[in-house]
Amino acid sequence: DAVMYTADDRNIHSVDEITDGERLTLALWFSRDGSHDEDTKLVSLLSQHLLNKNIAGSLLPLPASSNMYWFSQDQASNDHALGERK
C-alpha cells in the first residue's frame, strides 16, 4: 500500500507510531515546471564526464522530450486555483 499527499494546506495529516513491523518512507516530488527537470542536467553531467574520460559507446538515456509535461503553466496555475476553491 502507498499513501500520497500534496504539500499544501489541503492535506494536513499525522503519522501513527509503528509498534510492530517497520515503516518505510520514500520522498518524491513532482513538478509541472520543465526548468526543474533533473534528468537533463544529470545526463549532461554524465556525458561530459564520459567524454573527458574518452569512454565510447555509453548507454546513457536520452533526455526526456519537452512534451512530457502534460499541462501548460497556465493550466497548472488554474488547477491549483481550482483546488483552493473546493
Automatic annotation (TrEMBL):
InterPro entries, per database record: P3H
One of the GO biological process terms: collagen metabolic process
The molecule here is called: Prolyl 3-hydroxylase 1
Q: Origin organism of this chain?
A: Trifolium medium
What phylogenetic lineage does the species belong to? Eukaryota, Viridiplantae, Streptophyta, Embryophyta, Tracheophyta
